[in-house]
Write a structure and sequence with these properties.
By secondary structure, the protein is of the alpha/beta class. It contains 22 helices and 27 strands. About 30% of the residues lie in helices and about 20% in strands. It has an 8-stranded parallel barrel with strand order 3-4-5-8-9-10-11-12, surrounded by 6 helices. It has a 5-stranded parallel beta sheet with strand order 15-14-13-16-27, covered by helices on one side. The chain has a 5-stranded parallel beta sheet with strand order 18-25-19-20-21. The radius of gyration is 27 Å and the shape is globular.
Length: about 675
């Protein structure tokens, strides 16, 4: 019996047939173009790696149809014929893997990162992108219609199988359709027919220039999730009209910049959060409907297809984290799928900061072109019999195997151990605690952050599959060093809260604990209930600790000595956390200068502002700075092995650095 029979059932979309019902959605990844914004080998190999992974359909993101609508600086252009040769080379390298390859056509409108922005009406974007906006003239609208048609013709000439018009997420076409952003009084504003006119003129022009049989899909919002925005009843009204216009499929998403439900929701949002909209749209059309939105599990994708809620499931971040998700699902190797954890840090936060996109869970994103040979070697080793290869050095990835001792079974330690093992080294992990996970395991216990544990479970499963020994409850000592006699010692011991020196803190009658004390499973008695609690620290750890404590029916005050909250988090992830804190009544103070602690409270003032006194408190939780744990450095003189510090043991930072450093040390 086929694993996931609904996923791996071919589907006809317009004139093409996709081998399965998984689509890699378009993502503006913001890398892989040259100074003319023509695609390079970097972007090509990024797509080749995902085509190899077995996805049925795949889209290049952010294809700009006009220089005035370039969403981000390092996205491919489609508005000049000079872009065709590079696109053609990319198609030639991707197509042998049997994927249907397309391009998403877009104009950012008021959401473009450009000094001069245009839109249907002179209304600035409600969030993220700032700056004045000029209303388009009618002749400019007609010109843009032709730009979409010309861009499609270029995509067809380059050999792409289809295009998708981006009419969602608050970009230009969506701006025309939504009353929130369109207050025009001419033929492109006012009524539903007028607000959708731009989209239908684009479809008509594309059909003329690319032919009736060239598949054209549309990505629309089911809802904008913003006041006076596009709503589900609008999408339901539009869908049959798009079918009549002979579009190949409808791809239903949601949200705009500044919406209450973000277009790229974080781990706080439910899996399949937009599926209900695709399900409703599907009732009104016979063409394929594609759904999207926090779908990272093949199990959920199969359920959606089985229940007839959609015809195709679109995944973006899940295929960043693991390009081989489709093949692994088909082969029933679900525990081997490297999971997206919904942190939004590499995939969207970096991109909106105009940096190259990436992935916390998968540091190889954007480096596929540099790692082509590495991946071939690692995959060869990965798919062969490990026991057999261990006896045949000529087959191993490494020229010479080493004995690697990894100290610490947190995310960094396990990630390093995994790749060392894949590359043929002898690896042993020692962990002083009785379980793996480190601080990340503690963080995963906070409300809404359980998916942090998914990456830990992946690494743990991988080490078991690769026969890597983890010795629990055993701190590094001289005996271990002598018995194993390692060539290298990789130190991934993590970090611990640093105690601040504040007047009166340790003389007060309040209980003083750290965030680690609160989150430790073995320290459940430390968790307060029905108390008044002060949390020192407004970074990510401080806020998630405050959220955890507030969820236990406590009154919580956060004192942040910095000017911003949780700067190390992605804006998308932080948004949902802040909403959670708000619902629980957590009171936040920033730019705080603490004067002193009293018996039952704290006196502080806001810099350049008012003095504040909080009294009647029961507990102070320290969750501000963290310091590396490096006590095992004392063992370095006792061995000839080289010591390498990674992750928080090197410098406390966020997870993206920990995993990337771990894999880099294994490769280097």
């Amino acid at each position: 019996m086929t694993n996931f029979p609904h996923i791996f059932n071919p589907v006809k979309i317009g004139s093409m047939v996709s081998k399965n019902r998984l689509m890699m959605s378009a993502m503006s990844i913001n890398f892989g173009v040259d100074d003319k914004c023509h695609v390079t080998d970097q972007l090509t190999q990024y797509f080749v790696e995902r085509a190899k992974g077995g996805v049925g359909m795949m889209l290049v993101g952010g294809g700009s149809v006009h220089p005035g609508g370039q969403e981000l600086p390092d996205l491919p252009i489609l508005y000049e014929d000079s872009s065709i040769p590079a696109l053609q080379k990319m198609v030639e390298q991707v197509k042998p893997y049997g994927v249907k390859f397309g391009v998403q056509l877009m104009h950012g409108g008021r959401q473009s990162y450009l000094p001069q922005k245009v839109a249907p009406s002179p209304i600035p974007a409600p969030a993220v992108v700032k700056g004045e906006v000029r209303a388009l003239e009618v002749d400019e609208i007609k010109e843009l219609v032709e730009c979409f048609g010309n861009a499609t013709r270029r995509c067809k000439d380059a050999g792409f199988d289809f295009v998708e018009i981006h009419a969602a997420h608050g970009y230009l076409i969506n701006q025309f359709m939504s009353p929130n952003s369109n207050i025009r009084q001419d033929q492109y504003g006012g009524t539903f027919e007028n607000r959708t006119r731009f989209l239908f003129e684009i479809i008509e022009d594309i059909k003329i220039k690319a032919g009736e049989d060239f598949p054209v899909g549309i990505r629309i919002n089911g809802r904008d999730y913003i006041k006076n925005g596009w709503e589900l009843e609008d999408a339901v009204k539009l869908a049959p009209l798009l079918e009549q216009a002979k579009v190949a499929y409808l791809h239903v998403s949601g949200g705009v910049y500044g919406s209450t439900e973000l277009t790229i929701p974080s781990m706080y949002s439910a899996h399949g959060c937009f599926v209900y909209m695709a399900q409703e749209v599907k009732k009104h059309v016979s063409i394929p409907v594609i759904t999207v939105g926090r779908i990272k599990s093949p199990l959920l994708a199969e359920e959606i297809l089985r229940d007839g809620k959609a015809d195709v499931v679109s995944m973006g971040r899940a295929l960043l984290a693991d390009p081989y998700l489709p093949i692994k699902a088909q082969e029933g190797k679900l525990s081997e799928i490297r999971p997206c954890i919904g942190c939004c840090l590499g995939c969207i936060h970096a991109v909106l900061a105009k940096e190259p996109g990436g992935c916390v869970a998968n540091p190889d994103v954007g480096r596929e072109y540099k790692l082509k040979e590495e991946h071939q070697k690692e995959n060869r080793f990965f798919t062969n019999n490990l026991e057999k290869l261990s006896k045949t050095t000529s087959e191993n990835v490494s020229e010479q195997k080493s004995k690697i001792l990894v100290v610490g079974a947190g995310a960094a330690g396990m990630a390093a151990a995994r790749l060392f093992a894949i590359r043929g080294h002898k690896v042993v992990v020692v962990e002083k605690k009785q379980n793996s996970g480190g601080l990340l395991l503690l963080a995963s216990k906070a409300p809404g952050r359980g998916e942090l544990g998914d990456i830990l479970e992946f690494f743990k499963n991988e080490l078991q599959r690769l026969n890597v020994e983890i010795v629990y409850g055993k701190p590094l000592d001289e005996e271990i060093l002598k018995s194993f006699n390692p060539d290298k010692v990789v130190v991934a011991t993590g970090s611990m809260p640093d105690m601040p020196m504040v007047k009166g803190l340790f003389q007060s009658k309040m209980e003083v604990v750290t965030s680690v004390d609160i989150m430790e499973e073995s320290n459940q008695e430390a968790i307060p209930t029905g108390k008044k609690v002060i949390v020192i620290g407004g970074g990510m750890t401080g806020l998630i600790t405050a959220d955890y404590i507030a969820a236990q029916n406590n009154e919580v005050y956060v004192l942040n000595r910095k000017k911003s909250y949780a700067e190390e988090m992605s804006a998308n992830d932080r948004y949902y956390l802040r909403e959670s804190l708000k619902k629980r009544g957590v009171i936040l103070y920033k730019n705080v200068a603490i004067d002193k602690f009293t018996d039952r409270g704290v006196e502080f003032h806001i810099k350049d502002g008012e003095a504040v006194f909080i009294d009647g408190c029961d507990m102070v939780v320290i969750s501000e700075k963290y310091t590396p744990i490096r006590e095992i450095k004392k063992f370095e003189p006792l061995t000839s092995a080289d010591f390498h510090f990674i992750g928080d043991a090197k410098l406390p930072r966020h997870l993206m650095y920990c995993i990337s450093e771990a894999e880099e040390i294994a490769r280097s």
